[in-house]
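From the shared-data thread, chain only:
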Amino acid sequence: MRMNIEDIRKLFQIKMDKLGTLLVFSFITFSLLLIFSVKHQISIFDFVAGFPNRNVTSSSTVLKQGASNITVLGDKDYHKTQTILDIDQKKDTSLSSISIANDQLLDGLLVSAFEEASCLSRYQSHLYRKPSPYKPSAYLISKLRSYENLHTTCGPRTESYNKVMTKGPKLGTNCKYLIWTASNGLGNRMITLAAAFLYAILTDRVLLVEFGDDMFGLFCEPFPNSSWLLPRSFPYWNDQKDIETYENMLMNSKKNRSNGLLPQFLFLNLQHTRDGHNNFFHCDQSQGLLQNVSVLILSSDQYFVPSLFMIPSFTQELNKMFPRKDTVFHHLGRYLFHPSNEAWDLISRFYGEHLSKENEKIGLQIRVFKTHRAPHETIIKEILACTLQHKLLPEFGVQKTVAAPLLKKQTSKAVLVASLYSEYGEKLRTMYKANTTVTGEVINVYQPSHEGRQKSNNDTHNIQAWTEIYLLSLCDALVTSPKSTFGYVAHSLGGLKPWIRQRAKGETIPNPPCRRAKSMEPCFHYPPKYNCRANSTVDFTSLFHHMKHCEDVSKGLRLVNADH
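Structure, as tokens:
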């Protein structure tokens, strides 16, 4: 049967209508599958192969603070699920991807040039911590990128490094080095390491760290394509007579300059001293001499960053890097200190088991330097007075043996206690278990460890200390101990202004029991007193409006936000 043109057109139209219907149905079906897969965190390909058996270890459980849903990711699935859609808020997929990238790289502080498996915390920590309200300046980010390039060019085992370490008279390299050496406990080490890094950036030096066995397992490598670890082949550790001292260089500065003789290796001692008259590191004249030394070997237990702000030749750079002066450690600490995979396993496991479901987390860092000055009972009363006064914790209601009305919705708070002594966690836990609270909140007290005494040169102790520092930095509010660098690191990483306990004596509770810090910066306990220009002693708070005395060390200095 022959068909005319009109019959062919009608038949074609019918076929096209059926095809269109099929395409629409297919599109709707695919869309529903895609939405289902996103909501349940599974790939569309899972519908073909069947649902996978997802065994997730505690160390790879990722918890987003402040989120209504907890997203669980396996280590191998991490990159596959970079885009996490908040269904409740109906965020756009592309915007969510951008937000995660910004959070993951800390608003540009970090680069993505690392293998994830080498440092899980670098890629997962943003899921545990609320985004910081303090954004790094574009200039600081550019300085970090420039430093990374310098470190790659001049780092260990490069041609430039080898030339400098041969101590030849004609080196043929512009690379200079700042070698950091450990001193005192972990808190002291971390604040001085951050200060040393800033000094290295300001003076175009490569920072290398001399870690003992007690520090090798703490941190990931912070710089891409190179290492910050000083090679064990560094030539002059056992030949101290070839290393000039900073003090001798200052005494002989006129003779050395006239002869053109300056040491290539110089030991820079910035350990604390109560006599600030002899410390001239903050003077431009000293910096003029130091810039001609190839290798500085730094020993310090102080957060000497405020002294860098006293040096006129550094002022412009520092102001551009840190428009807000109280964010120095907050930015540099988050850039440098990423928990190693071993430490991250302890951190993520403890957080997941104890802190993840709490409505609010309050950290108590309790360091007792001289136990005979105040009994544990007095310090516990002081902490309760502080937390109750500032409404960090609720007051006690009736004893739980008395019937109390049930609340429709109970919220809970976690109290994270970091102390060498078990008495503090046990006492607080007992008190809140035995009593209701006037708010109806449930208070859960956790204390990860209680080793009794500090063991600064012990690797197990240090990794536990680093774990607790990091967990404290994840809290919503902190009460810390006076003059404790452990507490300084925790609140600075967390971007928190802590309540600092006052020093209790005997059985007397100080009034007030604690004071709010003016800044999230660590305190420089023993700052210089010498005014380089006026050749006299001075209180530097009178010269710099962004420096104030510390709440816990009356003569110490702390950088503050001058705009507030």
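Residues 75 and 244 are 49 Å apart (CA to CA).
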